[in-house]
Amino acid sequence: MGGFFSVAWAVAARQVYKYFANPAFLAPAFFPIFFFVAFAGGLTRVGDVPGFDYAAGYIAFQFVWALLQAVAMGGAFTGFSIAGDFENGFARRLMLAASDRRGIILGYTLASLVRATMTGTLVTVVALIAGMPIIGGFDFFGLIGLAILVNVAATLFGAGIAMLLRTQQAGPVIRTPIFLVLFLAPVFVPLNLLSGWIEILARFNPFTTILGAARGFLAGTPVGVLPAYSIGLGLVVLFALWALYGLRRAEKTGG
Amino acid sequence: MNSSLLVQILSLARRSTLRTLRQPAVMVSALVFPMMFYTINAYGLDAATKIPGFPADSYKDFAFAFPLVQASLFGAITAGSDLARDIESGFFDRLSLTPMRPSALLLGMLAGVVALGLIQGVIFLIMGLLFGVDIKSGFPGMLVLILLTVLVSLGFGGIGAMLALRTGSVEAVESAFPLFFVSIFMSSINLPRDLIEADWFRIVATANPISYLVEGLRSLVITGWDAQALALGFGCALAIVVLSLAGASSFLRTRVAR
């Protein structure tokens, strides 16, 4: 077990060092901040639509989606890093040296959490400057908990793909499904105001439950907490198995 | 323009168009992503039509300018990247050693952009009609819609060419993509300017020429024939074309002189 954690710490420390040596590590925050500014700034009147009953207002409504997008994209970018490490040969050497290779996955996941903390903080600061209220008080920690689960799930999903494909061309394969899951949810208005095919897809999208609960935490009216956390934990377990499968495939092919 | 230059332009336009059509990933970006975003926005924001004073009954109609403008942007980045790749790979330098004029490369690339813009415009129009978009200006309006889309493509293509000729770097051209993307969203693409509540956003959208391109295209769909919107739309598109082509020509001269 010592090998597992020592490998994890070593991988995490290297990744975190790489982040802070390169300001581009904040890149996953760029699009969420931009979407937040564009949607919260340009679509505020949508909050006046009859049936839009989110107590914290439209800026807060958009912030939650932007925050979860930032942490999810942080996970995707970690997947890109893993793919890059395989392409440049580092991962091959790492797998030869690691006493317990499962620690590699944990290491990347820990580093991804550090990145998500930075990008999430950045998005939150922008939202606070834009006038977002936090009326949920202590419930805000419930939102942070869900954000952590989303980041870990996205990281493990990206890690699995990266280890299976072992090339930077895995980028779109990691990014596109995450992007679709994020957008096929109630992005602009609550679920009850959606119509047509997007309403059907949003109802079946597990991210909708997480997004709804996260918005509830921010507004101080938590809803669907148990289902949201169950889905989040379920996704983490599922994608952890997926990442392990990717690791085994990478081992079989010699990294 | 003499026949020799015309032949050169046509050859390079054919090369530019075929190169784009032979890259499935580029065609996916140029056709699938704009339509995907459009359908998500069209259905996701349909509730916005209930805002008092909203100018359309269906957000599907209101948002139809979005894929047209976004596709023009993708086309411009692709064409700019291809031109930068020609510079990086030395094709441009080799071309300079032949009797072929460097301006033919620029014009050929822009002709490729126009061809792609035309293809995109027609495909999106057909798909929009299949989705049930109601073009209030009728068939003549559809032709004007495609004409304005092509002009927007040419204007964005000119900016792509400017970047390519100035930097000679594919990476530099592609890194401009987020800026273009931001400028589309910081316009009246999602709501009419008079319904934008945040003052700062309304000011940015009013100063953003893309708002006028969008409003020109949109007027043909949701209003019919709106002379002011069309004049502003075509005026902005032409201004972007003239300025970007002037800039690209200037950078071309500088690069040839090196």
Characterization of the model:
The complex is a heterodimer of chains A (255) and B (258). Chain A is mostly helical and 255 residues long. Chain A has one domain (2-252). In chain A, 74% of the residues lie in helices and 0% in strands. Chain A has helices at residues 2-21, 30-42, 58-87, 90-97, 102-129, 140-165, 171-183, 196-204, 206-219, 225-252. Chain B contains twelve helices and no strands. Chain B has helices spanning 3-21, 24-44, 59-62, 65-88, 91-96, 102-131, 138-167, 170-175, 177-185, 199-207, 209-222, 227-257. In chain B, helix 4 (65-88) packs antiparallel against helix 9 (177-185). The mean pLDDT of chain B is 86. The chains are: A mainly alpha (255), B mainly alpha (258). Chain A binds chain B through residues 30-31, 34-35, 37-39, 41-46, 48-52, 183-184, 186-189, 193-199, and chain B through 39-41, 43-48, 50-51, 178, 181-182, 185-186, 190-191, 195-198, 200-201, 205.
